[in-house]
Design a protein that fits this description.
Number of strands: 15
Distance between the termini: 16 Å
Strand content: 15-25%
Helix content: 25-40%
Strand order of the largest sheet: 3-5-1-7-10-2-11
Mean pLDDT: 92
Shape: globular
Number of helices: 15
Length: 473
């Protein structure tokens, strides 16, 4: 492909003419969004824009992240490289360009093949990560995280303010409102001044903590309509290593440093999460509406993904940071001009599959360092037999999701000492309430799954050959 473009340049033919027929890509990331909106069966959620997008696209009902924390998950997705105990481990410390410098980053690959690549909001956890792969410096909103002055003051003094805020303000008061406006402006700019296809990556912040959103979105969820989850308890026989103290939530000023939350506070947080989903839904709608208004929809692929799941009291947990289904399952919606609308697939897919999928849809080669698998066959045939399993991890836990089971093992990160295991039968126990790993009748099944998990773990233990398919620009 690079040779072809070089020949065109030698002949004096603009590569942008060749690129004209390539699809644009609107790449929407939503922080901490679990599949908790109406098109995924969460009828209690008001999400008209997400649901409309799903009705025009292919919805992946069983998509999974590689690691259940923000920075690590994003680095894995954007390189299509799996995590290990020493690669893509934490949220803040992870950098794709440090953890996997031999990998070809998603944005760099598209830029080197003629795309205008733009980053708005939160795409990589660190804005400077693989910054040279963007056509211009990544942009982030400057709006204050809190709308109310007293919460701004508290956050400035203590590092964190309260876990929720319910002000009667406009959408633009918060960062995601500012981000939506910037994305709209960027679409107009790209349409007016660029002849190259674009990759516009827009990373929204809510429903990440704190749960702050204008009051009108909270009003969508009257207090008496919000309920605790059906699995609001520790699973039977769950190993201690599978649980955590949800330290991320305890950082906020109105949450106790230890002990369980009260039911009242739990319900308030669930309501706040719902409000933030509806708020970000409205912002996503503004961007997609502008895409349509500019007549770009017929030549634009839209991908919407969440970086990992989130626990809303599931198993008495909050936040992510586990290898339960609720931490690892993500929303994934892919809309293309060429494939049928309103499709759903139950195939098990992984977040690292997004990169090679977009390469195939755009007609680009897939770098040798990519570990994911293109999902284009499923866009063509959603019911296609798809034998893949999903491998995920977080710190001490490694987990495998098959068609029927989730199997997980825990080992000390330093000594390797075995800490426990879990097996959940999703045909009989979709909420993972009963760990059946130690039942005698499951001995052969556990041995088989343990062997498969070890194969997946070893398959990604070493980096591939340090080579790139395309140079950085």
């Amino acid at each position: 492909m690079r040779i072809f473009f070089t020949l065109l340049a030698i002949l004096g033919v603009s590569t942008s003419i060749q690129a004209e027929n390539r699809p644009n890509i609107l790449f929407i990331a939503v922080d901490d969004l679990r599949p908790e909106f109406a098109s995924y069966g969460a009828d209690q959620i008001n999400s008209p824009n997400l649901d409309r997008l799903a009705s025009q696209a292919t919805q992946f009902n069983r998509a999974y992240c590689s690691v259940s924390t923000c920075g690590a998950s994003r680095a894995s997705l954007l390189t299509s490289v799996r995590p290990t105990p020493t690669r893509f481990v934490t949220a803040k410390e992870t950098r794709a360009d440090v953890d996997a410098p031999w990998a070809v980053p998603f944005n760099t690959h598209f830029k080197s093949h003629g795309y205008q690549t733009i980053s708005l909001g939160k795409i990589y956890h660190q804005a400077s990560d693989n910054e040279e792969g963007w056509s211009k410096k990544p942009w982030k909103p400057e709006t204050n995280l809190y709308a109310l002055q007293e919460n701004q003051t508290l956050a400035a003094a203590k590092g964190r303010g309260p876990s929720t805020e319910v002000p009667d303000v406009s959408d633009e008061t918060y960062p995601d409102g500012e981000l939506a406006l910037q994305a709209v402006n960027e679409l107009r700019e790209l349409t007016t001044h660029s002849q190259e296809p674009f990759l516009l990556a827009v990373g929204f912040y809510r429903p990440h903590l704190p749960f702050v959103a204008p009051q009108k979105y909270w009003d969508l969820y009257p207090v008496d309509t919000v309920v605790l989850p059906d699995n609001y308890r520790i699973p039977e026989n769950a190993p201690q290593a599978s649980l955590h103290r949800f330290g991320e939530l305890r950082n906020y000023s109105d949450v106790s440093k230890k002990g369980p939350l009260s039911d009242e506070q739990a319900l308030h947080l669930i309501r706040g999460y719902y409000a933030c989903v509806s708020y970000v839904d409205a912002q996503i709608g503004r961007v997609i509406n502008e895409l349509e208004r500019l007549d770009l929809a017929d030549n634009t692929i839209v991908v919407l993904w969440g970086d990992h799941g989130w626990n809303l009291g599931d198993h008495t947990l909050w936040c992510k940071h586990s290898v339960y289904e609720s931490s690892l399952r993500i929303p994934l919606i892919i809309k293309t001009p060429r494939h049928s609308a309103g499709q759903q697939t139950d195939a098990i897919v992984e977040s690292i599959d997004i990169y090679p999928t977009l390469c195939e849809l755009a007609g680009l080669p897939v770098p040798k360092t990519v570990e994911g698998r293109s999902l284009v066959p499923l866009l063509k045939q959603p019911n296609l037999a798809w034998p893949d399993v999903a491998f995920s991890r977080f710190r001490t836990g490694d987990s495998l999701r098959t068609d029927r089971y989730r199997y997980s093992e825990y080992h000390n990160m330093t000594s390797g000492k075995y800490l426990g295991r879990m097996l959940y039968d999703h045909k009989l126990d979709a909420l993972e309430n009963h760990n059946i790993a130690e039942r005698p009748e499951n001995k052969e099944l556990v041995a088989k799954l343990a062997e498969l998990l070890e194969e997946k773990r070893l398959a990604t233990a070493k980096p591939p050959s340090p080579r790139r398919s395309s140079p950085k620009k």
